[in-house]
Amino acid sequence: MTIIFDFNRTIYDPETDTAVPGALEALTHFAERGMTLHLVSRREGGRDDVLDTLGVRDFFASVAFVGDKGPVIQELVSGSSGTVYVVGDYLQSEIRAGNKAGAKTIWLKRGLFAGHAPTYGTDVPWATIKHMQELIEIIP
After folding, report:
1. Which partner from 6, 18, 37, 104 sits 20 to 30 angstroms from 98, CA to CA?
2. Strand, coil or helix: what is 38?
3. For 91-121, how does the pLDDT look when each residue is reduced to its tens digit (9 = 90+)?
């Protein structure tokens, strides 16, 4: 089983400069269960350093900072066996890309993009959560 995570506002909260509540617990849980975890984030200055500051880099089999998340998510989904989940806070980015790639998408509906609604059918998530620890309940 594979889980692809967004970074900003999914793992890291830039407003508080800390981990999103429940993110470290969820990452620890899935890593201890032997799941393959990937991080795909928009390329912005300083994000690579924040991974080390939060102490989360070692949870991930791969880390990609890119201009467009879609192709990387597609490649990760295509190269994975079994169920692949994509977890993120932005419907029109990682949720859309995950759906187009055939993954099960989970929208973390909190923070800056919580008030957004799907624009297209590809923006509709498989599941919606409001707290990262809820992932532990919905991903077997």
Report:
1. 18
2. strand
3. 999 999 999 999 999 999 987 777 788 888 8
Q: Which letter does DSSP use for residue 77 in this model?
A: H
Q: What are the residues whose beta carbons fall under 8 Å from the beta carbon of 86, sequence distance 6 or more?
A: 3, 4, 6, 73, 77, 94, 95, 97, 98, 101, 103, 104, 105, 106
CA distance 113 to 106: 14
The type of residue at 102 is G
From residue 66, alpha-carbon distances to 31, 116, 133, 135 in Å are 24, 23, 26, 25
- Separation of alpha carbons 70 and 93, rounded Å: 8
Torsional class of 7: left (φ above 0), alpha (ψ -120 to 50), beta (otherwise): alpha
pTM strictly above 0.85: yes
State the amino acid at position 115 in one-letter form. G
User: Which residues, in sequence order, are bridge partners of residue 38?
Assistant: 4, 62
By C-alpha distance, which of 22, 113, 128 is closest to 138?
128
3-state secondary structure of 102: coil
The CA distance from 126 to 106, in Å, is 6
